Amino acid sequence: MAGNSFGTILKLTTFGESHGEALGGILEGCPAGLELDLQAIQRDLDRRRPGQSAIVTQRKEADQVQFYSGIFEGKTTGTPIGFLIPNTNQKSRDYTHIKETYRPSHADYVYDQKYGFRDYRGGGRSSARETVSRVVAGAIAKQLLGNVEIQAYVSQVGSIKLQKPYEDLDLSKTESNPVRCPDPEMAAEMEAYIKQVRKQGDTVGGVISCVVSNVPAGLGEPVFDKLHARLALAMLSINAVKGFEYGSGFDGVQMLGSDHNDAFNPDGSTRSNFSGGIQGGISNGMDIYFNVAFKPVATLLQQYDTIDREGKVVQLQGKGRHDPCVVPRAVPIVEAMAALVLADFKLLSRLSKL
Amino acid sequence: MAGNSFGTILKLTTFGESHGEALGGILEGCPAGLELDLQAIQRDLDRRRPGQSAIVTQRKEADQVQFYSGIFEGKTTGTPIGFLIPNTNQKSRDYTHIKETYRPSHADYVYDQKYGFRDYRGGGRSSARETVSRVVAGAIAKQLLGNVEIQAYVSQVGSIKLQKPYEDLDLSKTESNPVRCPDPEMAAEMEAYIKQVRKQGDTVGGVISCVVSNVPAGLGEPVFDKLHARLALAMLSINAVKGFEYGSGFDGVQMLGSDHNDAFNPDGSTRSNFSGGIQGGISNGMDIYFNVAFKPVATLLQQYDTIDREGKVVQLQGKGRHDPCVVPRAVPIVEAMAALVLADFKLLSRLSKL
Amino acid sequence: MAGNSFGTILKLTTFGESHGEALGGILEGCPAGLELDLQAIQRDLDRRRPGQSAIVTQRKEADQVQFYSGIFEGKTTGTPIGFLIPNTNQKSRDYTHIKETYRPSHADYVYDQKYGFRDYRGGGRSSARETVSRVVAGAIAKQLLGNVEIQAYVSQVGSIKLQKPYEDLDLSKTESNPVRCPDPEMAAEMEAYIKQVRKQGDTVGGVISCVVSNVPAGLGEPVFDKLHARLALAMLSINAVKGFEYGSGFDGVQMLGSDHNDAFNPDGSTRSNFSGGIQGGISNGMDIYFNVAFKPVATLLQQYDTIDREGKVVQLQGKGRHDPCVVPRAVPIVEAMAALVLADFKLLSRLSKL
Amino acid sequence: MAGNSFGTILKLTTFGESHGEALGGILEGCPAGLELDLQAIQRDLDRRRPGQSAIVTQRKEADQVQFYSGIFEGKTTGTPIGFLIPNTNQKSRDYTHIKETYRPSHADYVYDQKYGFRDYRGGGRSSARETVSRVVAGAIAKQLLGNVEIQAYVSQVGSIKLQKPYEDLDLSKTESNPVRCPDPEMAAEMEAYIKQVRKQGDTVGGVISCVVSNVPAGLGEPVFDKLHARLALAMLSINAVKGFEYGSGFDGVQMLGSDHNDAFNPDGSTRSNFSGGIQGGISNGMDIYFNVAFKPVATLLQQYDTIDREGKVVQLQGKGRHDPCVVPRAVPIVEAMAALVLADFKLLSRLSKL
């Protein structure tokens, strides 16, 4: 199985299933001498944690990270950082009902097709629980990035959409409400809608926007590892993501080049920023901003028909504690993946000149 | 410089600048014994070639590929396939005017920031001319994929947008017009609009949609190398691309889970396909479909103000032969990159079971 | 920091320092469906374990591996196998004396040069204790290899050298003595010599030979990843190794080609085997055999002069529990690394033909 | 096919067969701004070239490298350097006699086993002609290394062995004789012996020693990518190599630790250098030195029995122009591979500290 690693120099490799004893990972490539703020790491874990508010899953997970290596006397040593997040909430549940059935729009069917059998307890490796390791690594990457600021927020839930550009928002308010939308009125509207959807046992999608400021010019590698291409890979690797756009994005399609081009100021900054801070795959020093679309998660608290391994139609009843809308808890995950991309390119940029 | 390679097993590494003597690449990982149809490769190159119609750049490039290795008696040998595409159209032009200036929304400025200096003749490595190597490799990947069918087409130019889903289109008509839109009426409208934009010395964006059929279930690797995440990386690595969405995409955000979930048929196929043929990052056997947004290209045939290396404002006059809208010529590039992703995963899928 | 991973498809990434809470790793790429014999894994760990005999270090380490993922109902699932080996023997010792000093022929000095500071408790990441993770992964690789048999043994200690070729030895006797030399008389001689060296507080080097049988033809990748080149990388990555030779090795230098060439039998096997089972970097089905040279380990139980960080001469007194000769305990490590190389190539060989 | 790339940051990927139109490669990762001495590159190619003296193959190959990218106005641009070396000497020979037969100790048999068929014209991809690309890339790596000095020389031919340590040799004399042995008397003896072997239509092996001076401390990555482990991989990837040892090597096995340990001088240098300039896989600033054993090449100008694809015994008559002893021409190849290893680690060392 490929695909458990992310990054070129700053490289995260993760392991773990939703119902194993623990998940964890190894973060390689962090230079020696970085003083780590371990509380900041835990803070990001808490932002991702189940049970943090009324509109997210009520599952209880402590999500305490344990570090095993690569840190000495409070500083990174340059050696790989191994860590574990124990699954404190594995219930010895009865899985018989889903053992032989395929839940719609889950990975059950494709895992069986690919591997011949699967760990049927919950989503196994395909569960979004895996992202807990990314949040740990991303929190370290943020510290490596110094004053580069990565701010993600919820900009859409269902059809409730924040129309303002990010420059008109006070992003410091993002954490002030459980939806993580920096506009308090919109946040309230979104929250009410999520609660209503939850009551129906249903789920709904959303969009997370992300703004990265204070990025030095020169990050990103031409051709196949363009900065925005790696961001797209990073975002689409997050569970439930269906789309990515940066800068002018899909709307830019309709513009004329004469409107879309970002004219230079004498200092190299640009008057407009349809480029989204990236030209030719390389940061130009302006803000990087992008949108990430999340589908409604597939796990419903409703009854539905599906099939078993033999193709026989069976009825399943969704139960348990699931997120009616995934975007509030995905905000720190988006930030973490963005941080991993940028910190990796920051290290790579040390290699571009003689 | 990282970022010149694409793929894990089937791996393409490219080299070359727009104004060098030649571009080329090495394709590794193609298994031995594949009978190659060299004319099919050239056909895809011709679909990408400048000068093929009135609405694309009138630059003359023969774009004839020369193979140097890895093919013997008409079949791949399992060794790396080295190839070259000579630049027949390098003019010994005078570049003095752009040598010291930064064209807006080009990579000039960021290359200088990153590397300290740059090959100022045309776009250098950042030119879309680099994609010629991808088309060669992608055409081989298509042959490796056997009956997997990859069909890209233009679905939007400026605000002229094909509203029909792909199932209602006759994709065999894509090549019947210079826009590469399978709906002849819309194609004519798009073509007229592109001509009008060109007359103004301006450019406009567009969307390419792509459908992949006959994909076996089980392609894609969980977590960081999800099938759709690699497709996103592939597409965003193409010049001028600003966004990617697959399946329900950005529109799916507004749906409820109960509507979005794809119920199973007894044979494992699904009644709807909002998943876009991919669940948990792994193909499920249904059609894969996705959209790719292209911005209006930055090179205008107009006069404009910009800055030079010292930050002094200077005037530039765009001239030469450029594409008013990049999407018609980008269709084979989208296909090539999709083919590289899928063929790579097809090879990787040999490794998933004992 | 690069260099924590080994392998292309079957890939081991390790973390951990000698005096951290635990060491561990992630093994990726093991296909789904392999029934794992966990006791066989522990058995190899026990062969590497300190304290197993009178001629190895008397340090007490339980070396019990804990698996966290990738195994379900006794079988590999195709997802990454995460594991931990707790360090049960970390003493809260006083390290003040070595904190500021550089032990000769250890990695203390170079770590400080490279990273600016170091985890000074024992060898940190440079300790041979890291190989515990390799033995776990290698034991899984052995099971993946099926009937391929990997047999390492001690063929030299100091100047006491087994003169017989491996064909004349009964390799089933290797484990019958603490030296792991299959010739009981030589083993006794070696054991006596090691005891004498230990009494002096000194150390001595040795050679491990390894024979791999039942290897199918076709393993190995031409050019840079030749089978023997990867074996060399694997072996030289083991602590204290100074040399590697395979087949005729350094002695083959003196032979004439007409003597050295291995004439074919009609079935494709060869009459002699100076090639060591590998031609052009690819296995030919004959036995693979190679030698690995280990230097005398640097940790002495003697008093010696050395320098501190300021270059001042200081006296150190080696103490504690160290191996007088590393080769007996390194036998399972050599096997583990050989298994990782061969299993990786076995998986890669699935990709060579259409 | 894996295995066509070498290096992590400074990465060479090669393609080409002995009897194709050209061989070549792509060198990635060379930082921008390196002023290239193209004549120095050609000089190393000439040192490797056939026909340069009476004791090497009399095949005529111009071996002129053509660069296609990555160099502008005499300096590297940071983009990949693509290059080609045309095969000027492909004769349209009759290969019928070897098409269906397997030459002993060649890669013919294993290629057929691995790939199902092979390019039977000469050695194809397994030919040492592939190393021409390495010499090009290695010559660039040397320039990147600045004042790091890499000096390889022939220290043994057959049983004629230079007994002096490298410190007692005048390495500036290496190029003064066709054998590339810095001791003129030994060189003459070796030359006479090679001529005698050639007269018999036979071949003989040899050893190349290599000394690297002025290496800064801190190069190399712990654990799997130890500096000496990567050197071993590099050397064993060269055709005909059977063994590698560094520092005290196989002889060090017999030493006691108290003799083998390299005591420090106050400045961090060491009084002895049994470590070979590397401790724990990381350079310590002392000279790095190592030996590489080459077998007698398999191509004889004699008649011999062998088998064909059906296992039938057939007679072959070796003819043509082959090297009776490969080491004189392999000297620049050893240097090139060493340079690639060291330059790669030099770049990686920029990433070790904050």
Task: Describe the protein in words.
Chain A is an alpha+beta fold. Chain A has one domain (5-345): Chorismate synthase AroC (Chorismate synthase, AroC fold, 4-Layer Sandwich). The first copy, chain A, has helices at 38-48, 96-99, 108-115, 131-144, 184-199, 227-236, 249-252, 257-260, 327-348; strands at 5-6, 11-15, 22-28, 66-67, 71-72, 75-76, 81-86, 101-102, 149-157, 160-161, 206-213, 241-246, 278-279, 282-283, 288-294, 303-308, 313-317. The first copy, chain A, has a five-stranded antiparallel β-sheet, covered by helices on one side. In chain A, helix 1 packs antiparallel against helix 4 (131-144). The longest helix of chain A is centred in the last third of the chain and has 22 residues, at 327-348. Chain A is globular, with a radius of gyration of 21 Å. The two termini of chain A are 37 Å apart. The mean pLDDT of chain A is 94. The interface between A and B is large, with 113 and 113 residues.
